[in-house]
């Protein structure tokens, strides 16, 4: 039987334990109109809104098992893009969204991604999303990012790249399973690759 006596406290060893934050920081970037706010709306189970460019940033916080995930979108318009690097320090995961239906913007989108990675001081995992797969002409991640691109991104992410072809528009039952898929991908990357846990 367990006996509690005051003297027993003398035997207690106190060590310095690092208390890790339990809130993972996930930053969502990509050019204007690629679908970042739409993705956040899906995650937050908010109804779809029309296009209203994000001037600053939006955050939603969701719980996934033992992880709290803070998912932050920063506007992708040229004037807001200049501030991306202010948001990327200490991130645990970068989600980079490309409008898969907008071929004309692929090069600009990739070059903005390379800039973000070049400016980032730490190596973070990266989830690349080719969005708007519901549109007929949409390209998949595998054709937007060639092996040279992936090699370059891999150098800045310790090779921790995940790709996802997606339709972010919340549409009934499909929207629900898409939300769960994205949360589970974020959770897996955070727990596997990040120093978060
Ligand atoms: N067809 C289609 N349209 C989408 C999809 N995802 C988003 N959109 C539409 O694309 C437009 C822009 O979406 P937003 O999510 O506001 O874009 P954003 O990346 O947040 O843009 P900024 O805040 O300006 O950087 C909206 O009209 C959305 O409804 C998708 O998967 N398919
Ligand atoms: Mg937005």
UniProtKB/TrEMBL annotation:
GO terms for biological process: intracellular protein transport; vesicle-mediated transport. GO terms for cellular component: cytoplasm; Golgi apparatus. GO terms for molecular function: GTP binding; GTPase activity; metal ion binding. GTP binds at residues 30-37, 76, 131-134. InterPro entries: Arf-like_GTPase, P-loop_NTPase, Small_GTP-bd, Small_GTPase_ARF/SAR. Keywords: GTP-binding, Magnesium, Metal-binding, Nucleotide-binding. Mg(2+) binds at residues 37, 54. Belongs to the small GTPase superfamily. Arf family. This is ADP-ribosylation factor-like protein 4A.
